[in-house]
Amino acid sequence: MNEVVDKALRGMALLKVSNIRHWTDRTFSFAAERPAGFRFRSGEFAMIGLMVEGKPLLRAYSIASPAWADHLEFYSIKVDDGPLTSRLQKIAEGDEIVMRPKPVGTLVHDALLPAKRLFLFSTGTGIAPFASVIREPETYERFDEVILTQTCRDAGELDYGHALVREIREDELLSEVVGDKLRFLATTTREPSEVMGRMTDWIRDGRLAEATGAPLSPETDRVMICGSMAMLQEHKALCEEAGMIEGSNSEPGHFVIEKAFVD
Ligand code: A2P
């Protein structure tokens, strides 16, 4: 390795990629080696990317695998002219990604006060951190009900979430931990499907309260939100209207938000 690249990589880990899966023409997932000693909390993100012209090109990616897993998993959008994803979508088995091994994030249990129900609201690839959280046993120790929602334009984009929930139900150990506490509410907005509509609209018009038994309340519920900036702002306003207070790692509260990866 030449000196310039060597310098650019200081503090970074190079991780071999495997299990690449293209879910739709807009989304794909892959696994990467977990460096020895790399610890993170389920729901956190790390900076990952590729070496481009001798320099690391990094973006924040939620780690979709749970903290106990021996590999790291990522779920990504493909943006044709996106500086990173236009390249990352072409990775092949055995190629290497770069990671800065300093995980951070607010979609973690430490940022939420105890309660009865946990709502995980996502759109598109915003489901990634929740793929980690719903496979984390602590989630089911802390909450009686876990309601994951994902809203996408098309039904095909919901396949990743459906496969994930199926995997949990078929896993001998996890299914025992999860029991009947996990629910997945998957909706589309553009392609007709069984269940349609933005979750923000479901909250406003009472469909979510009807589907889950009660409206959002700071007394009983905690919320994690991950999606686009506009989606986060709308969900945040709805949480605040319900009387909820935003939490952080230093001051746990009723809801937490994080922007999903964009390009
Ligand atoms: P819609 O089709 O009505 O725009 P995108 O692929 O653009 O990131 O969108 C992913 C999903 O998020 C789409 O189903 C989209 O619905 C929905 N969405 C977009 N903006 C918001 C918002 N402000 N609040 C809730 N859902 C949103």
UniProtKB/TrEMBL annotation:
Annotated ranges, domain FAD-binding FR-type: 10-110
EC number in record: 1.18.1.2
UniProt GO molecular function: ferredoxin-NADP+ reductase activity
Reaction catalysis annotation: 2 reduced [2Fe-2S]-[ferredoxin] + NADP(+) + H(+) = 2 oxidized [2Fe-2S]-[ferredoxin] + NADPH
Keyword Flavoprotein: yes
This protein's record includes keyword Phosphoprotein: no
PROSITE patterns in alphabetical order: FAD_FR (PS51384)
One matching Pfam family: FAD_binding_6
Domain of life: Bacteria
Membrane-spanning parts: none
Keyword field: FAD, Flavoprotein, NADP, Oxidoreductase
Enzyme class: oxidoreductase
Example of a GO biological process term: heme catabolic process
Requisite cofactors: FAD
UniProt record similarity statement: Belongs to the ferredoxin--NADP reductase type 1 family.
Name of the protein this chain belongs to: ferredoxin--NADP(+) reductase
Organism: Amaricoccus solimangrovi
Source taxonomy: Bacteria, Pseudomonadati, Pseudomonadota, Alphaproteobacteria, Rhodobacterales
